[in-house]
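ping. complex inputs:
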Amino acid sequence: MNKLHPPDVAASRAAPAGPVITCELLTKRFGDFVAVNAISFEVAAGEIFGFLGANGAGKTTAMRMLCGLLGPTEGAATVAGFDVFRQPELIKQHIGYMSQKFSLYEDLTVGENIRFYGGVYGLKGAVIREKTTALLQRLGLEAERNTLVGSLPLGWKQKLAFSVALLHEPAVIFLDEPTGGVDPITRRQFWDLIYEAAAAGTTIFITTHYMDEAEYCDRVSIMVDGKIEALASPAGLKRQFGVATMDEVFLHLARGAKNTE
Amino acid sequence: MPAVELINISKSYGATPAAREVSLTVEAGELFGLIGPDGAGKTTLFRILTTLLLADAGTATVAGHDVVRDFRAIRNVVGYMPGKFSLYQDLTVQENLEFFAAVFRTTVAENYDLVRDIYEQLAPFKNRRAGALSGGMKQKLALCCALIHKPTVLLLDEPTTGVDAVSRQEFWHMLGTLKARGITIVVSTPYMDEAALCERVALLQEGQVLRVDTPDALRQSYPWPLYAVRAAHMHPLLQDLRAYPDTHSCYAFGESAHLSLAHAAPDAAARLTAYLTGKGHAPVVVAPVAATIEDTFMDLLAQQQPAA
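pong. complex structure:
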C-alpha cells in the first residue's frame, strides 16, 4: 500500500516493480559453437540475482550481451528498459559494472578516480563534488581522498570500486566475481554494501565461485553448457535437488557438463 | 629431515613487508596449506622456497637443501605451479609437457605413470594451444608440467583460484592421489573450505603467521559460544544481531548467520529467539554450532585489526 515508505528492507525488496532485466531465448553463436543457448529469465528491481555456472558454461558471454558489449545472435533482451540489439550504448550508460579484474585506476588518487568515473558517466562537476564527499564519508575514507588507489588495501579498493560503479545511480549493477582474493571478513563487509544497495532499489546481478555467497542471493540461476539448467531461490534449489547446500546443487548440475573447456 | 623449513624469514618490497619472521616446518609426505587472502605473503614464501627470490633475513631449506647455497639442487627436486598461468600459450598441450620434460632432461614416457590420471583428462585437447584452454584445463596442464620431472616437493600457489567448484573438487582429489605416492605438497588457497582438506595449515595475514595447526585443532580452538541463526531475511537479521547487547561478532555464513556471544549462558538461545521475534523476524531458528576454520580465521583477523 505504502510504496513510497516501505516498512523494512524485506518488504521493499518484495515490492512489485517492472523487471529490470528481461531475457527471452537469448542466444549467441560463435561459428558452430553455441555459447549461450536460448536463455530466458527476468530480474526484478532491487533483486539480488546470482548468476552461476562452471567455467566455460557461457556466463561471461551472457553477461557481455546484457552489458551491451557483445551483440546477440538471436532472441530478445532488455536491460534497464533498453534493447540489447538496438540500444547497447544506452545500456552502457544506465548500468554499473565492477569485476575483480577491472575496477579503478591504480595511478590515480581516490578523488581522481571518482571524478573520472563521474565524468565518464556524464555527471556535472557540482554533482560529482557532492557525491564524492558523501561517498568518502559513507566508506570512512575521507582521509584517503588524495591517496593513490594502488596503495590501498585490496578490500578498500573493492568497496571503493563498488561505490564508484554506483555513482551515476544505475538501475542495475553487474558484479563479476567481485570478492575474489579478499579475506573472509572483508568479503562479508562487501556483502553488507550489496544488501544496502539492493535495499535502496538497485538491482544486483552477480557471479561468484563462493557457494556460500550464492546463499545470500534472492534467486540463483545455474548455467550448464550454454543453458540455464536451474533457477530458483537458494532454498528452492536445495529442495528441488534434495540436498543440504548450494555447493551440492552446483556439483550435481555442473558435473554433467560437456563444455568444460 | 623436514621437507620444507623456514626459519625467521623476512622480506620487504620497499617499505611494504611481505613476510615477517615467518617460521614453518612441513614434514616429508605432508599435505600442508598456506591459507590467507591476497597480500598475506603466500606468493613471496613460494618464490623464496623456489629460489626465485632472496629473503632479506632468515634461512630456508627444501628437501634439506639451502635455498641460497644449494639453489640448483632445489630446482631439480621441486615442482612449482605459480599462481599466474606460466606455460607457453602458443605451444600445444603436448608440446608444453614435452618441453618441460626436456628441460629436466627426462621424457614424458619415463614419468608418465605419475601424470597419467591427470593427462588422460587432457588427452582430447592435446593438440590445442595452451592459451585456448579453459581455467580448469590450464590448471591440470600446469600440474602435469610441474610433475613431469618427478619432484619430491610440490609447491602450488593458488591452483584453484577462479576455478569452478567442480574443477576444484577434482583438483583436490588429484592432490590426495599425489600425496598417497609420498610427494610432499605445500598448497596455498584463499578458499577456507579447502583448508579443511589439508593435514595442517598455516593461517597467514599481511606477512605474518597467525597460527599453524591441524584443521580439527583450529576449529576446536575457537574461544566463543557460537550459534547459527536463521530467519527469512539475512540483511535485517545481521543488523539486529549486531545490535544485540551480548554479541561479540556476527557474520553471514551461507544460509545462516554465525553469532558469537561474549558470555556463555544456558538460556542464551531462548533469549536470542525472543529478542529476534520481538524485532519482527520469523521464523527464527537458533542453534549452537561448531566453529569452522573460517570462524577461527575471522576471529584471529579481528584480533589483529580491531574495528576495521
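Chain A touches chain B at residues 8-10, 53-56, 153-154, 177, 180-186, 188-189, 191-192, 195-196, 198-199, 209-212, 215-216, 234-235, 245-247, 250-251, 254-255, 257, 260-261 (CB under 8 Å).
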